[in-house]
Amino acid sequence: MPNSDAHIVRSYSEELQNISALVAKMGGLAETILTDAITALVKRDADLSTQAIKADKRVDSLDAEIEYQVVRMLALRQPMAVDLRSIISALKIAQSLERIADHAKNGAKRALVINQSPPMDATRGIVRLSDVAREMLRSVLDAYVNSDAEGAVKVRDRDEDLDVLYDGYFRECLTYMMEDNRNITAATHLLFIAKNIERIGDHCTNIAENVYYMQTGERLSTARPKGEDAMGLKAE
Amino acid sequence: MLDRETNSVTIADPKVVCRNVSVSYSGKQALFDIDLDIGSHQVTSLIGPSGCGKSTFLRCMNRMNDVIDGCVVTGSISVDGAGILDDEIDAVQLRRRVGMVFQKPNPFPKSIYDNIAYGPRIHGLVRGKDELDEVVQTSLERAGLWEEVKDRLLQPGTGLSGGQQQRLCIARAIAVRPDVILMDEPCSALDPIATARVEELIDELKRSYSIVIVTHSMQQAARVSQRTAFFHLGILVEVGGTEQIFTNPRDERTQGYITGRYG
Amino acid sequence: MTDREHNTGIAVDAAEVKHARKRYRAERRFRMYGIAAIAAAAGMLALLVISIVATGWTAFYQHSIALDVTFEAKVIDPKGGRDPSVLARADYRKLARASLRELFPDVKKRGDKRKLYGLLSTGVDQQLAELVAADPSLISQTRRVEIYASDDVDSFLKGFIDREAPESDRRVKDKEIAWLDKLEAEDAITSHLNLRFWTKGDSREPELAGFWGAMVGSFFTLLVTLALSFPVGVLAATYLEEFAPKNRWTDIIEVNINNLAAVPSIVFGLLGLAVFLNFFGLPRSAPLVGGMVLALMTLPTIIIASRSALKAVPPSIREAAFGVGASELQVVTHHVIPLALPGILTGAIIGMARALGETAPLLMIGMVAFIVDIPGSVTDPATVMPVQIYLWADSPERAFVARTSAGVMALLGFLMLMNALAVILRKRFERRW
């Protein structure tokens, strides 16, 4: 929660807190969708998948609500300094969370498809990826709620691990595909799911940068740590 | 063009330099050791809660505090390198170079023409009626008032609307060709349209003059100035580029004031 | 009370209505008190004015007896040189008496003759001398001249002496009444406006007495008062208000000025006597000294009024002038004083009006003397209007009663003129800021 001192006009503070609460709620929902999607994949639970897909709609409506509240506050309150930064950050974080939920939903959709085929060992790798992503998401949401700039930096750094894991999984999937032609369909889906999770990690990094800006007023250095990507190219 | 001034008291090529300025009224101190530079050809705004000393500081720069009994000003203030607080300095000549516009528009109860002409006359700045006519017209044009009053120059200045009166006062101030214009909450008695006109005028004037404006409205300070100084309880808390002050101030007190967390 | 005020339709309950009714009654009572107060004041004023006018209006016209006067050369100008001093001192009374004898040939006894001559004013030779001096060609001619009647005759003709009263109670006896009736029958008695009142100085004889001397004396005195008190007062007020530092000394001065304004005027008279007359030896009875004494008296009034007027100029004007770079002196002379002028002038005229009506201090410095000539300058002996009124009020003659009231009317008229001047000046100089 940005800056706990209350404004002289209490309704101003309440409105700011309202926006923060919406963002936190949206984040929690995104977390749930991601967890459910992976669980649905591992447990081969079609109902859970459907539930996760439906939940994405609620995330979208929260995003619209946050956007509306932000524009309203800009017009009516002309916020300055930390208040201005926190509102703009809330807007951008909501957009990132919306993308995260979308990616998670897509994962849930693919899980539905994959689970029509017989189970594969390869799914275990996804869990490792998703664990890191989920941890990143949880940490960055905590950092947001606590206005913790350092915590945000840690999340940003964690993305490097996720990228490494992703590269490893990419190779694993290729191996599966080369082993047996009948695995190609399933493995491809798994690859896409892994990509979704990797994108979720990137969005968590965006959120972390916004939390850092909101708290300090400065940008995190633009050089994001990126490991060697699967195509063998190093980031500049 | 964004003017990214460094976040410090001193700047390069200042117009007015104030060091260790303290002011007390009948023994009660109102300003404590103020160090501040005022940049030339830009607008500096002074913000802060009521009673923080910003108007007092403004009035030091043209020695208007001299007319208040029991007011003592210490420290040094120099305009273009020349100190102005010494007793030998002629306050009358200083006020020609450092003009002032007040909160409530106060045109003289004379005609519009005489309002503008008074300053140049008493300072002996013009020879002959033709030159005086020209000065009056130029001043009114620069104040954006000429078109509205050119047909009624001989009518009393007090017959104009509030916004026009204030622009008349601005024209009166620039008629004596000052270097610095001090404005003490110039728009607080005006409606939003008149305020916008005056702000537009300030924007244009900064090309020729250095302007210091005291304002209660942070939005106005944000719109109009390039550099902002925050005063609180007689001290200068923070000074810096306007956008920096309003997006990311360094001092907690500044942030508290501009976000409305305490007065 | 309009219906609107009694319409309590908006009230919520009966208690509110009762409360409102109480309020209406209180307001009505207050209005009544106000009207009563105004009525009382107006009534007293009307009483005063009516009584003065009723007594005084008769002084504004006068009766004359028309006689055919032969301007005999050998009485007026025996040597024939037309020398003005000779013409002035001739015995014109003789000529007038000759005319009377012609009209009433039966009057033989010395006592009766004296009474006959007494019908005319004692100023008859003065009157005729003035005619001849104006037009020497009158000599050797016969003209019908309207000669002023004596004050008793004038009173009788105006009805103040009752014809029916017993003779011992009257100043005009039966024989005189008979002569007057005869003259009246012959259209020899005329009445005309009393211009002497407005053109001549004081005299022992009421019919010859004029107010003009006192008016000129008042004028010169006020001139001196104005010339001394106005500049000194305004400058003192300006200095005290604008330039003097606010310390103990200026406070003491301010308190003392306020006290001086309340000092009884006779004290200033004593001061004038001791200092101006005895120490400096200035001429007694002169408007110069009178003016100086009144100036001392008016000074505090002017200073106080001027200070008020200066204080009332809003500080925003001063600040604006300072802001443009005017010096202290320029701020005061270009801005503050012009804006304070209406108040200053009003104070000055009020002070002058008060000085105009002052009697006591002028009595002390000797302006109570009997002055006949119209004063020509500030050092000539003179009297002032209120003193003149006082002197006339003191005289026993019946005719002076009317003249006293007439003098009061003239003084009041003068005062109203001055107040009107104050209003006009204030309107003219008034500027809105």
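The interface with chain A takes residues 218-219, 222, 246-249, 254-256, 258-263 of chain B (CB under 8 Å).
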